[in-house]
Automatic annotation (TrEMBL):
This is ABC transporter. It comes from Teichococcus aestuarii. The keyword Nucleotide-binding applies. It holds the Pfam family ABC_tran. The lineage of its organism: Bacteria, Pseudomonadati, Pseudomonadota, Alphaproteobacteria, Acetobacterales. Gene3D superfamilies: P-loop containing nucleotide triphosphate hydrolases (3.40.50.300). Residues 6-235 form the ABC transporter domain. PROSITE patterns: ABC_TRANSPORTER_1, ABC_TRANSPORTER_2. PANTHER family: ABC TRANSPORTER ATP-BINDING PROTEIN, ABC TRANSPORTER ATP-BINDING PROTEIN NATA. InterPro entries: AAA+_ATPase (IPR003593), ABC_transporter-like_ATP-bd (IPR003439), ABC_transporter-like_CS (IPR017871), ABC_transporter_ATP-binding (IPR050763), P-loop_NTPase (IPR027417). One of its GO terms (molecular function) is ATP binding.
Length: 246
């Protein structure tokens, strides 16, 4: 049987007295798009950092595409990628130079053809030779996505992919991600504060609060179970401890 995109078991991260993530377990199937939700400080970024192998869990284990991150991290990293607003691309390098660096890091064959393909797909041809530091937020988002796709990942971790975008550009990125997932079969784990975005893109949602997984289900399931009209209201119920009785 094909291994899951992500299998997390009892994933925990402690910083001294603070438990940022506590006993998080979930299995993200191949090709699925799931949302990772929670208020500020819920543990989303810490979770993503552990999934990427950037942080060593205090307890628990995670395997990505069948590779145990504790033993076989580099095999997993070659087959996954991520985008995060916290990672700035080197400002002085042009977009094409940045993508070339990442393509080499990932050992991509046919680098120039891949960059041209991504530039066409993400409407970046006009900015390819501009320094990354001179781009607008919308342009930076498209470059960050190109960077995240350079190695044709089978798993994509996206931290707030549309933060700071205007509604039109945000919509363009969402449509693009939907189409990309459908064409590539890539699994996506999306951390977002935009509930409408999550309802649109995600088949399943993990709700975190103070480091714990407190609920999960499809957006439609959660909305029905909480007797609400949309995921935003469910989020507020969970954040404010207004629980439904099982
Ligand atoms: N390096 C660190 N040292 C100590 N505590 C940390 C560290 N990184 C995160 N934390 C704490 O762990 C908890 C989870 O933080 P994390 O950044 O994962 O949350 P988040 O869900 O991504 O929040 P946000 O939506 O605000 O980005 C918070 O209480 C935070 O203060």
């Amino acid at each position: 049987m094909q291994s899951a995109a992500i299998q997390a078991e009892g994933l925990t991260k402690r910083y001294g007295e603070t438990t940022a993530v506590e006993s998080l377990s979930f299995t993200l199937p191949r090709g699925a798009t799931w949302g990772l939700l929670g208020g500020n400080g819920a543990g989303k970024t810490t979770t993503i950092a552990m999934l990427l192998g950037l942080l060593v869990p205090s307890a628990g284990r995670v395997s990505v595409l069948g590779h145990d991150m504790a033993r076989d991290r580099f095999a997993a990293l070659a087959r996954m990628n991520f985008s995060s607003p916290y990672v700035a691309l080197p400002h002085r390098l042009t977009v094409a130079e940045n993508l070339r660096v990442y393509a080499h890091l990932y050992g991509v064959r046919g680098t120039e053809a891949r960059i041209a393909e991504l530039a066409a797909a993400l409407q970046m041809e006009e900015i390819l030779h501009r320094p990354a530091g001179q781009l607008s937020a919308g342009q930076k988002t498209r470059v960050a996505l190109a960077k995240a796709l350079v190695n044709r990942p089978e798993l994509l971790l996206l931290d707030e992919p549309t933060a700071s975008l205007d509604p039109d550009t945000g919509d363009w990125v969402r449509t693009w991600l939907e189409n990309y997932r459908a064409e590539s079969g890539c699994a996506i784990l999306l951390a977002s504060h935009n509930m409408a975005e999550v309802e649109r893109l995600c088949g399943h949602v993990l709700m975190m609060k103070r480091g714990r997984l407190v609920d999960q289900g499809s957006p439609a399931d959660l909305v029905a179970r909480f007797g609400r009209d949309n995921l935003e209201d469910v989020f507020l119920d969970i954040a404010r401890d207004r629980r439904v009785e099982a």
